[in-house]
Structure formats: C-alpha cells, structure tokens
C-alpha cells in the first residue's frame, strides 16, 4: 500500500521491487531476447538470496537493491498500457472525463424547466433505484 | 460537419492556388484598406495584403487543414464532442489566415493572439492532468510573444499608424525601430519555440495527433518565421539578428541531439520540427528570406504527413506512443509505411524529394557564403543528426521486431485516413520541384569545391550508419554505454533548459510572493482592512445591540443619566 508502507510484508516489497526492476530492464533493452537474457540474470541474483531467513538481512538486501535500482533507473520509463496509471501507465490515462450523474441534481430549477419530461423520468428512476437497493436487488 | 469543412477549405485552397499563379506570373500585389476608427491622429484600419507570398502560404495552410479535418473524421471517431474540435480547428485556420494577410499590426495581433489561445484550447482537448500542464506551458510561452506584439503596437504609435510596411525605408535607422525589431524577434522566437522558449513544443504533444499535424508542425510554429519574413527588410542589419542566428543554431543542434535520446514517437517528431524551425530561423537570420519561406512550405507538407502516419500507428498500437514497443510495421501497414518513409526521407533531404530542394539549397548557401566556422559545423552536424534520428526512428518502427505482444494482427484499412495521407504524399513528392520553379525564377549561382558539395552526402551517410548501429542493440552493445543516466537525462530533457526557464526563473519570485501573500494579504491587511474592520463593526454592533433589545435596565439607567445631565445643566 502506498499510504502505509509499514503494513506491507517483506515479500510484497520484494515483489514490487522485482516488478519495477523488470520494467526498468524493458526500458533499457528493446529486443525480446535481450530483455529475457537480462531478466534471467536479475532473477538469478534474487534467487541467490532466496534462502536467507534473518529479517535484518532481508531489510539490508532490499535497501541495497532499491538503491541500485534508483541509481540505474531509465530517464524515460516505458509505458506499456497507455490508458493506465502506474509504473507502466502512459499518455492516454484519464483522457475521457466522465461527468457524474449527480451533477444534474445541482441544476437551477429554471434550467431544469427546459427539460421537464427528462427530469420527471429521472426522479422516477431514482426512486426505483432506491427501492431496489432497499430490497436487496442491487448490491 | 467534417466533410463540409473539408470541402470549404479545399475550395478555398484551389481559389488561393489560382490567384497565386496569376499573381506571381504577373507580379501583382493587392492592398485593401478599410478605416474602422480614427482617434488622436491614429487610425485603426483593417488592411489586407494579397501578394504571391500570402496567397501561397494560405494555399498551403488551407490544404493541410482540409486534409487534417478529413483525417480527424476517422481519427477522432470515438469522440463525443467532435463538432467542438472541428470548430476549434476552423477558428485556428481563420486566425492563421488573418495573420497571413495582415500588413497591419492590429490585425496581426488578432491573428497572433487567436493562434495562441486556440492552440491552448486544442492542447487541453484531452482533459487529463498531462494535457492541462502542457496547455498551460503552451499558453504561457505564447503569451510572452503576445505581450511583445502589444508593446510593438504601443511603440509604433510613434509613427502615426500601424501599417508597418510603410515605415521600413523611412525609419530604418531610427532608435524606435531598433526597439520594435528587438520585440518582434522575441515574439517570433516564442511562437517558433527557439531557445529559451523551446520547452512548449515537445510538451504540446499531449494534444490529439490531428492538432499536432496542423498546429505544431506547419502553421502555428511557422507563424514566427512568417512574421520575421515580413519584417525582414527592417531586421537584416540589426545586431540582435546575429543573436537570433546563434540561438536558432543552438536550438537546431540541441533538438537534434534530444531527438536521439527520446522514445516517444510524437516527441521525436516534435523535436524534429524544432530542429527544422531552428534551420529556418538561422537561414532567415543570414538574410535568405525566400529560401526560409521555401523550406517553411516544404517542411509543412512532409511534417504534417509524418504526424498523420504517427497517428495511424498510435491508433493501431492502442494509444501507445513508445517506439520501444513498435517494430516490423512495414509488413502490416504497407501504405502508411510508404507515407512514413517518404516523409522521413524528405526530411533527411534525400535527392529529388521535396525536402531536398529547400534543405540542399540552404546548406549550399551556407557553404558558399563565408560565415563563421561554428555556424558551418553546427549546420552540417545538425543535418547529420537529422538523418541519425530519422534512421533510428525507421529502424525502431519499421524494421525491428514487434515488441508489444506475442500474438498480434495489425492493419490500416481506414481509407479516410489513408486518402488524406495520400494527398500530402503527393505534395511531399512534388511540392519541392513545383515551388522551386515558381519561387526561384532564376537559379542561385553557387560554386563549391567537390568535397564541400558532397559534404551533405557524407554527413547523411554517417548519420544513417550511426542510426542503424544505435538501433541494433545486442546483449552487450554500444548503446548501453551511451545510456548512462546522467548523460541521457541531460540530453533528452533538452539540456534542462525547460526546467531552468520555468522553475529556475520563477522559483525566487514565487517564493517571495508566497511570503508577501502570507504576511500581507492574509496577515496585516486582513487585520487592518478586511477581517479586522469586520470584527470591530461586529463587536460594536453586538455591544449596541443591548440598547435595541428593549432592555429595561438600560432605559431606566438612561432616564436617570439624562435626568442628572439636565439637572446639572439647568441648576448648576
């Protein structure tokens, strides 16, 4: 969790680090076989410390690895999923703004008077929705 | 609405073409003038100047905008508010036309400001945070130019009218003209994104691709060059023109290097545009305004085509713009690849495409006239860098393996987009030769040694070899050495100049204004004017409220008090 890092377990932190390291490798290398080669080497480095049991050693290794990742980060990270946010998120994130429906409740009565049928039907739909919610048909 | 706008602009283009041919054959120039208002010995007039240059530029602008609107019909198909987009594009074209035909500073200002504000509206069309930041950067950078034009209008009031073309011969060595020319050059630099105003052009790639094709490659960014072409007679002997030469050459060089370190498709093309703008500005500041205009037009054609091809590729890749995920596209989208390759080769100046005529002429003029060695080196180095990043782009996009997913099927059967690209393809192939026959009625006499003549070919071959080598990355390869974080972040972030010119310049003042705001606006001025007076009045009114609350004790006390006063007054 980004808001309370102390609540994440060590294995979660390692997995997060591993994913970011993989994305960094994808940023540096382009050809698929080159990426795979470096990813295998990275995996081997992590597997060497797989059997460590001491938590203090865990933390030290993770700190060293995070430092190395920070020093070798790519200035232009990859963006594999253009419409997503996150480490592989891209340029098309949040392009289309969906205006929520409750905004129409704040229209002035004179504005609403331009579309009387629509707002009458809207009120009916709201009542139906509340009734369905109370009856448990919608969760 | 798309088709109507397309037909209207296409017919407008044809009308401009016929008038251009008629005007240039007969050496005609038409000047209309309507006086709107006259006050204090100044008169605001609406003027229109139609000569071969303005007609030709209007023809190109209307052709590109008609093709882009036709392209948007398919590209922006999923947009709910397409009509708003088309209206914004039409308003942009109108502002551009107003700028082109104006020999009068007031109407230039209307067109200039219109360009800046409408380009802001177009950049923030996609309403995400990135677009908002990019739009703000675009608008504020262009605003500096607008302020400069406003100040020029103030200074030109010294001469009694805003028709600047009448004053060139008369006031050439006047001190006021020196100030005016300085401000005009600054305004042109902001619009054409020269150093230090170059940060907005790559950022403006947050706009939709048709906007980039029309606005950021061929019309808005060339407005600065066009303004300097119109003012060229005045500026040619100015010292600041030499400074412009220096800055534009640096812009050309810097953007050429940055494009080699960039991985976003649209940003590479934007930096390529920046490099060509630097080339146009530099050749203009050397005094060759017709060659600058020639390159402006040919560049508009193939750059718009390049952006449109990039749009097709982005659409196909699910909105991904990263070239590291592209590859092998020539097998799947052959027609788009054809257009992309021709526009790229035209950009490199490959012989007998449109870019060759203008670019080769520029380089030969630079070689033939004995300018500074640094100018010479940077011109040829930038040409080589152009070929370098072009071949790198072709390798990444066309030749290497596809990198996005394991199983895929790609196609570009969208005939609307293809048809619009073919129009520009035709122009990219032929406009160079057509324009050279029209504009240059006599050839330039250029005599160069053999190796100097072939210097362009040498740097092009070197650039292509380097581009090929850099893109062919093996497991342990040359490119890994070049990608040290410090070097690549310095080079791809445009030498940190955007950071310096935005955050670096404004931090002290913003910090100081924050201190002032907290201490004065929200501090002392609140105590002595806003909240303080309110509190005083409130406390007094609470205090006096006691007397209005029908308090019997107060009435009795006031009765006794008055009684005592009257007693003292009358009896003592």
TrEMBL record, chain A:
CDD domains: Complex1_LYR_NDUFB9_LYRM3. GO terms for biological process: mitochondrial electron transport, NADH to ubiquinone. Keywords: Acetylation, Electron transport, Membrane, Mitochondrion, Mitochondrion inner membrane, Respiratory chain, Transport. One of its GO terms (cellular component) is mitochondrial inner membrane. InterPro entries: Complex1_LYR_NDUFB9_LYRM3 (IPR045292), NDUFB9 (IPR033034). The keyword Acetylation applies. It is found in: Mitochondrion inner membrane. It is a peripheral membrane protein. Belongs to the complex I LYR family. This is NADH dehydrogenase [ubiquinone] 1 beta subcomplex subunit 9. It comes from Bombyx mandarina (Wild silk moth).
Automatic annotation (TrEMBL), chain B:
One of its GO terms (biological process) is ATP synthesis coupled electron transport. It is an enzyme of class 7 (translocase). It comes from the Eukaryota. One of its GO terms (molecular function) is NADH dehydrogenase activity. Its EC number is 7.1.1.2. Pfam families: NADH5_C, Proton_antipo_M. Residues 389-570 form the NADH dehydrogenase subunit 5 C-terminal domain. It is a multi-pass membrane protein. It catalyses: a ubiquinone + NADH + 5 H(+)(in) = a ubiquinol + NAD(+) + 4 H(+)(out). The chain crosses the membrane at residues 7-32, 44-70, 82-101, 147-167, 173-190, 211-233, 239-261, 268-294, 300-317, 329-353, 373-394, 415-440, 455-478, 490-510, 552-571. GO terms for cellular component: mitochondrial inner membrane. Residues 102-382 form the NADH:quinone oxidoreductase/Mrp antiporter transmembrane domain. It is found in: Mitochondrion inner membrane. The keyword Mitochondrion applies. Keywords: Electron transport, Membrane, Mitochondrion, Mitochondrion inner membrane, NAD, Respiratory chain, Translocase, Transmembrane, Transmembrane helix, Transport, Ubiquinone. PANTHER family: NADH-UBIQUINONE OXIDOREDUCTASE CHAIN 5. Core subunit of the mitochondrial membrane respiratory chain NADH dehydrogenase (Complex I) that is believed to belong to the minimal assembly required for catalysis. Complex I functions in the transfer of electrons from NADH to the respiratory chain. The immediate electron acceptor for the enzyme is believed to be ubiquinone. This is NADH-ubiquinone oxidoreductase chain 5. It comes from Bombyx mori. The gene is ND5.
């Amino acid at each position: 969790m980004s808001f309370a890092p102390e609540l994440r377990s060590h294995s979660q932190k390692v997995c997060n680090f591993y994913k970011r390291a993989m994305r960094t490798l994808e940023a540096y290398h382009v050809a698929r076989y080159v990426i795979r080669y470096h990813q295998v080497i990275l995996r081997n480095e992590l597997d060497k410390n797989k059997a460590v049991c001491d938590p203090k050693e865990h933390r030290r290794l993770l700190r060293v690895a995070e430092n190395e990742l920070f020093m070798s980060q790519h200035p232009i990270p990859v963006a594999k999923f253009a419409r997503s946010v996150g480490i592989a998120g891209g340029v098309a994130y949040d392009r289309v703004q969906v205006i929520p429906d409750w905004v129409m409740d704040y229209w002035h009565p004179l504005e609403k008077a331009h579309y009387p049928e629509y707002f009458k039907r809207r009120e009916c739909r709201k009542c139906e929705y509340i009734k369905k919610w109370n009856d448990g048909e919608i969760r | 609405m798309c088709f109507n706008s397309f037909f209207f602009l296409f017919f407008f283009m044809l009308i401009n073409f016929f008038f251009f041919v008629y005007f240039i054959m007969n050496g005609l120039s038409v000047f209309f003038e309507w006086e709107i208002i006259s006050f204090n010995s100044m008169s605001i007039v609406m003027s229109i100047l139609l000569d071969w240059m303005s007609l030709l530029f209007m023809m190109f602008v209307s052709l590109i905008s008609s093709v882009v609107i036709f392209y948007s019909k398919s590209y922006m198909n999923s947009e709910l508010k397409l009509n708003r987009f088309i209206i914004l594009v039409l308003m942009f074209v109108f502002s551009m036309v107003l700028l082109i035909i104006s020999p009068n500073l007031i109407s230039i200002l209307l067109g200039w400001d219109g360009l800046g504000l409408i380009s802001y509206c177009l950049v923030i069309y996609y309403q995400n945070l990135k677009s908002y930041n990019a739009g703000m950067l675009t608008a504020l950078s262009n605003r500096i130019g607008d302020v400069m034009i406003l100040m020029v209008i103030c200074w030109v009031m010294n001469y009694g009218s805003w028709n600047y073309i009448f004053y060139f011969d008369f006031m050439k060595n006047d001190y006021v003209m020196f100030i005016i020319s300085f401000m005009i050059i600054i305004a042109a630099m902001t619009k054409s994104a020269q150093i230090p105003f170059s940060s907005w052009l790559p950022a403006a790639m947050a706009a939709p691709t048709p906007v980039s094709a029309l606005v950021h490659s061929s019309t808005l960014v060339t407005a600065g060059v066009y303004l300097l072409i119109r003012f060229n007679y005045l500026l040619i002997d100015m010292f600041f023109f030499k400074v412009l030469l220096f800055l534009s050459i640096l812009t050309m060089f810097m953007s050429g290097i940055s494009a080699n370190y960039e991985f976003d498709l649209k940003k590479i093309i934007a930096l390529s545009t920046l490099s060509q703008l630097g080339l146009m500005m530099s050749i203009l500041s050397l005094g060759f305004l017709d060659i600058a205009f020639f390159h402006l037009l040919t560049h508009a054609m193939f750059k718009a085509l390049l952006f449109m091809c990039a749009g097709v590729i982005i659409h196909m890749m699910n909105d991904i713009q990263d070239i590291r995920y592209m590859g092998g596209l020539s097998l799947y989208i052959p027609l788009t690849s054809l257009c992309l390759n021709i526009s790229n080769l035209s950009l490199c100046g490959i012989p007998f495409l449109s870019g060759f005529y203008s670019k080769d002429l520029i380089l030969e003029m630079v070689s033939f006239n004995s300018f500074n060695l640094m100018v010479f080196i940077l011109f040829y180095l930038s040409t080589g860098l152009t070929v370098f990043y072009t071949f790198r782009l072709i390798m990444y996009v066309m030749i290497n393996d596809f990198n996005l997913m394991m199983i895929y099927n790609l196609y570009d059967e969208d005939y609307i987009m293809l048809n619009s690209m073919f129009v520009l393809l035709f122009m990219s192939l032929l406009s160079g030769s057509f324009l050279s026959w029209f504009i240059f009625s006599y050839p330039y006499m250029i005599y160069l040694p053999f190796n100097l003549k072939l210097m362009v070919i040498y740097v092009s071959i070197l650039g292509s070899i380097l581009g090929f080598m850099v893109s062919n990355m093996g497991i342990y390869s040359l490119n890994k050495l070049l990608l040290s974080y410090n070097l690549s972040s310095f080079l791809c972030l445009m030498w940190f100049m955007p950071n310096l010119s935005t955050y670096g310049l404004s931090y002290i003042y913003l910090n100081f204004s924050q201190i002032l705001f907290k201490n004065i606006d929200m501090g002392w001025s609140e105590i002595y004017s806003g909240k303080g007076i309110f509190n005083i009045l409130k406390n007094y009114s609470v205090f006096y409220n006691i007397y209005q609350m029908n308090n019997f004790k107060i009435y009795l006390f006031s009765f006794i008090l008055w009684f005592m006063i009257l007693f003292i007054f009358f009896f003592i």
